[in-house]
Amino acid sequence: MGRWEPNARGRLAQAAFELYGERGYEQTTVAEIAKRAGLTERTFFRHFADKREVLFAGSEILQDSLVRAVIDVPESAAPIDAVSAALETVVTVLRDREFSQRRQKVIDSTAELRERELIKLASLAAALADALRRRGVPDLAASLAAEAGVAVFKVAFERWIAGTDEKDLSELIREAIDELKAVTAG
Amino acid sequence: MGRWEPNARGRLAQAAFELYGERGYEQTTVAEIAKRAGLTERTFFRHFADKREVLFAGSEILQDSLVRAVIDVPESAAPIDAVSAALETVVTVLRDREFSQRRQKVIDSTAELRERELIKLASLAAALADALRRRGVPDLAASLAAEAGVAVFKVAFERWIAGTDEKDLSELIREAIDELKAVTAG
């Protein structure tokens, strides 16, 4: 699972997370982030639109890989199985729980960031529903399978972050999907 | 389905909705809302914290009645059936589609309001999960049944608002629950 070699983008992200943790998100400036990373503000803005986007750059990657995975699942698969398969790919992006925990702590501390996170989840559901419709899934089924998938991701991610056990995210996602199936079976 | 007799609160809400529709949410002031309703600003602030809350006062009522309904469902009911039953009560609060459509148009026009709506939905999911846990439903099942319920509500509400057919909200909720069950059965 070895550490990644940080490039400019990675160094900026790392510096930002350190500073958000040390002095709080609102108190941290882009100038300070760049300085801590040993880079210029100009370089910062080549990689991120603002200090908020450092926290959400991963969400875009996540959404893109989920959508691609949904499209790539064999056509015979039912919508929920396409979504399950897509969620499995998430795990390859989200491996570092400690990092995700630190990120979540920053987000939970600021109303603006919590709102931003909800928007990203809503956008994820819309993108998944769209990918399912492109597979020929009817509108209502596409919307519900996408929303169910996001619910599974949200609940599994919260459990993973809470870190009450040693299960990895893929395991927690499988558990959540199984539980959702059991719950909706009534 | 007769029209309700507007009291001060109702007159303020009506005036606010009219003005949001006519000149836009951001351009409307509390003073203008009070004037249109034939009331004072002081009276406005006795009923609403600010001009945004006029749009979301109904969300609180909705959440309260959903939570109460979940608690009231016979103990033998499975979590998803408790949530279904709770959603059925929603219909008694949300009857006026034209009003809901106008409200949605205002919300969709402003990023701040769209964010607020997502927060209200997240808070609804948390409240429903909490109500289920108080029924003795285990944590994971409670979270997933609550998220599934909110997904059903969201999708059914969007279809209702879109107004492509003449089904009422309760019918659309039942259809969405049935579809969710079919979708998760794979």
- Spatial separation of the terminal alpha carbons of chain A: 40 Å
- Proportion in β-strands of chain A: under 5%
Low-confidence spans of chain A: pLDDT under 50, at least 5 residues? Answer: 1-5
If helices are DSSP runs of H or I spanning 4 or more residues, what is the number of helices of chain A? 9
Please give the number of β-strands of chain A: 0
Largest interface: A-B, 33 and 33 residues
Sheet with the most strands of chain A? Answer: none
Order of helices and strands of chain A: HHHHHHHHH
Derived from helix and strand composition plus strand pairing, the structural class of chain A reads mainly alpha
Mean pLDDT rating of chain A? 89
* Oligomer description: homodimer
| Apparent shape of chain A | elongated
Radius of gyration of chain A: 18 Å
Classify the helix fraction of chain A into a percent range.
over 70%
Question: What do you see in this structure?
Answer:
Two copies of one chain form a homodimer. The first copy, chain A, is mostly helical and 186 residues long. The first copy, chain A, is built from nine helices and no strands. In chain A, helix 1 (8-23) packs across helix 2, helix 4 (53-72) packs parallel to helix 7 (111-134) and helix 8 crosses helix 9 (169-184). The first copy, chain A, starts with 7 loop residues before the first helix and ends with a helix. Mean pLDDT of chain A is 89; it is low at 1-5. Chain A binds chain B through residues 78-81, 114-115, 118-119, 122, 140-141, 143-145, 147-148, 150-152, 154-155, 158-159, 175-176, 179-186, and chain B through 78-81, 114-115, 118-119, 122, 140-141, 143-145, 147-148, 150-152, 154-155, 158-159, 175-176, 179-186.
